[in-house]
Amino acid sequence: MNIHFIGVGGTAMGSVAIACKMQGHHVTGSDGPLYPPMSTVLDQAGIIRFEGYSADRLQTLVPDLVVVGNAISRGNEELELVLDLRWDMTSMAELVGRLFIAKNTSIVCCGTHGKTTTSCMAAWLLESAGFNPGFLIGGVPGSFDVGCRPVPTDIHNTRAGVFVTEGDEYDTAFFDKRSKFIHYRPTIAIINNLEFDHADIFENTEAIIRSFQHMVRLIPRSGVLLVHAEDQNAHIAAQNAPCPVEFVGTLEGASWQITDIIEDGSSTTWTILRNGDVYGQFTLPMPGEHNLRNATMAIAATAAAGLTSEEQQRGLAHFIAPKRRLEEIGSWKGCTVVDDFAHHPTAIAATIKALQQRYPAGNIHVVFEPRSNTTTRNFFQHELAQCFKGASTVCLGPVNRPERYSIDERLNTDVLVQEITSLGIKAVSLAPDRATDPHWGTDIADILAQHVQPNDVIAILSNGDVGGLRGLLTQGC
Question: Which CATH number describes the domain made up of 94-316?
Fold first, then answer.
């Protein structure tokens, strides 16, 4: 089949395009200008890609199926051609459900936080046990060379395999406003946590809960739903589930109870009780209680898929974290530079706590770029200050694309600095007009130089370029 991807440069879209090629399909794609690493990854995989969108060019390709990326909207000339000619089109999520998941056992890892890490863990536990799973992971996994791959087909084996998906609650495409995870038909589903996020598409927490409830309704009676035992919103989403529900957490009597936690620098050891009986002791080569919870969810999910505790213990000990999850990317002025994706207040607080565990001797200097569609607005205006507790210095970059919001809607970084300072933490912010300068990271580097000492930690928290700061701090590394 000839498949064309409009918007092929997205991390997930590019990964799915590569997986389609692995399945034997002829794949082409178009996007705006692309840069490493995604441009390199696509080229190395042999994906035929074009810079810019062209209806004339697409008409010569005559694809059997067009995959429309989430970022593509009406007015895109390739999309308009597809609509005019009534060509077969689909979304990335629907394609994954149709081509990759299909009859396979579907493990869907959902939650406001930890989706990427949990799905990486589940896929790796299955891989290390010899299950050879398929998977779709939105980030860059550390334990695999690709972010998506199909379940291998074997003409001598008709038994369906296992496919692990990062269950994103964000909407699917311009023509399908349902959450992506609706298309993944879970057999085993995880609700790791549930908080307000994605302010651009969800009006409130109740709207997000409803979307999770729609996903829950798709789980077969023979499946299982795994729920954070201490998260009330997750409990609400799990009400009236048509399948068995198992609770995971530190709560006494939880189906999968976390006990006897031992934090040791860069690793964490704990014991799991399954329905009151010892299931096993596990060691994860990552710090942070949030990562321990992610791992316990992955253990419970893969147990439902047939893994033993012994297989999981062996696999977890060799797990490699995905990129930009407490990732050491270099050193600067004797400080360790750590890159992390955290952008929600809960995730930021968990990341700082994990950094304190891993680097107990140094001060933590946080660089935070308000970039997501939620943190650029003032939804968490006052909650954000509290999440930086434990940091010595907080440097706030300018709000990304501030022109999207009125002053009354936008995050006020000056007020945020005042609130952080009142907690005894040194805090500074860049002026809003610095957002138009792609090199504003030089200002942050100058500020950091006044505060850091050898053996300190600089934590960059952003899903963006941070004004070029990463490059500045890691040159020569």
Answer: 3.40.1190.10
